[in-house]
Amino acid sequence: MKVFCLMLLGQYHISMAWVVSPQLILLHRLQSSTSLYQSSNPNTNTNNDEFIDPVLRLPLMEAELATLPSTEDSSPLEEEIENARTAAEFGVRRAQFEFYDAFSNSDLSAMDAVWSTQSFCRCVHPAMASVEGRQKVMASWSQVLSASGPSSSTDTPGFKITPSRVRIEICGQTAMCSCVEETPNGGKLEALNVYRREDGEWKMTLHMASPIMVG
């Protein structure tokens, strides 16, 4: 198992450097966007028991807009749709942030919080067979993170990965984020993270990363 972890860490060099950008500022703003949306929208019930997640309502609102008579004012509905789309995308980016933050800090508790507790989970570590089921997925992360604990040497760089060609696709309760992960040694990995909307948050159901072989 030690060999497994060392091989895995040879493929990964994870850090949060990739989110130190305007995206991080937008993620910070997301923390208050939901409450602002609820307080400013007269159609939103502030009772948590009755509140309907606007992200889950997005497909219904888009369908409603498509069938809205041209004689009616569509601007309020369009604003709701834009708010929901913004919340959805920022929410996915925040989930990505939390995943890589947990990885870079070797924080198993934070990693556990990232993953879904309601949906089937699957993880494909670089050059390894897939791990299926939440319990086995978390066991694999426990081994990986324990082997990648903080270095005692301040001269040793932390994990670092720079995603490029990032693309987010959101369809209802499912979000997919694909990217190419670039490591400091010039290596590249194709990566895919899939999230599921659960109780107003995006939770990971799939993570996979595979080295790109350059011929």
By DSSP (H or I, 4+ residues per run), the number of helices equals 6
What average pLDDT do the residues reach? Answer: 76
Strand order of the largest sheet: 2-1-6-5-4-3
The total count of strands amounts to: 6
Compute the separation of the termini in Å.
Answer: 30 Å
What is the chain-wise order of helices and strands? HHHHHEEHEEEE
Q: Tell me roughly what share of residues is in helical segments.
A: 40-55%
- Give the oligomer, counting copies of the same chain as homo and different chains as hetero: single chain
Q: Low-confidence parts lasting 5 or more residues at pLDDT below 50?
A: 13-49, 151-158
What is the approximate shape? elongated
User: What proportion strand?
Assistant: 15-25%
- The rounded Rg comes to 20 Å
Structural class estimated from helices and strands: alpha+beta
User: What composes the largest sheet?
Assistant: 6 strands, mixed
